[in-house]
Amino acid sequence: MKLADVESTMQKSVEATLRSFNTIRTGRANASLLDKIVVDYYGSETPLKSLASISTPDASTLQIQPFDRSSIGAIEKAISLSDIGLTPNNDGQTIRLNIPPLTSDRRKELVKLAAKYAEEGKVAIRNVRRDAIDSIRKLEKNGEISEDDARDQQDQVQKLTDKFSAKVEQLLSDKEKDIMTV
């Protein structure tokens, strides 16, 4: 496993963590809250983004405009059944989601959820490190690289691990500030 491959895989783990953070509600309307919602559209699971345009007319409202008006009931049902905790308001043509201000208890729960996502990201990074070090040790055992080269490469992998773990920690810190800001 090349060092560039290790770095790009770790970067993908950081990006996945960031996408998870974006699904956490912070009291302000953000279209990425709806990223994980899938709608049963004519028997197939379809992402909401594929069925409607999502906009934020103001800081506390999300507006969903279905491309096909006949899908409005299915979209409303999918939002109601999801874990985002918002009640859809349907006027026959659009669906509006009013984002209520967060309570302090709910903010604490969301910080815990963000910490869980961050830990999942760091575990993914550590798994990449483990795989890379295993492959380096295998190369050393087969005599393809020297002991010194193996140690140098393992040190480089550890430095990358530290760098990307710090990025995840920074993302978590930023998200916590965002959630706790009233």
Task: Give an overview of the whole structure.
This protein has helices at residues 3-22, 48-51, 72-81, 104-141, 147-180; strands at 38-41, 44-47, 52-58, 61-66, 88-90, 95-98. It has 182 residues and is α+β, with helices and mostly antiparallel strands. It folds into 2 domains: 3-21 and 103-180, Orthogonal Bundle (Topoisomerase I, Chain A, domain 4), CATH 1.10.132.20; 28-98, Gyrase A, domain 2 (2-Layer Sandwich). The strands form 2 sheets. It has a 4-stranded antiparallel sheet. Strand 1 and strand 2 (44-47) form a beta hairpin. Helix 1 packs antiparallel against helix 4. The protein is elongated and about 70 Å long. The relative contact order is 0.16.
CATH class of the largest domain: Mainly Alpha
**Low-pLDDT sequence parts:** none
Rg for CA atoms: 22 Å
Per the principal axes of the C-alpha atoms, what is the gross shape? elongated
Protein structure class? alpha+beta
Gap between N and C termini: 46 Å
- Count of extended strands: 6
The total tally of domains equals 2
Q: Tell me about the largest β-sheet.
A: 4 strands, antiparallel
The share of residues in helices is: 55-70%
How are helices and strands ordered from N to C?
Answer: HEEHEEHEEHH
Our count of helices gives 5
CATH fold-level assignment of the largest domain: Topoisomerase I, Chain A, domain 4
- Compute the average pLDDT: 89
Oligomeric state as shown? single chain
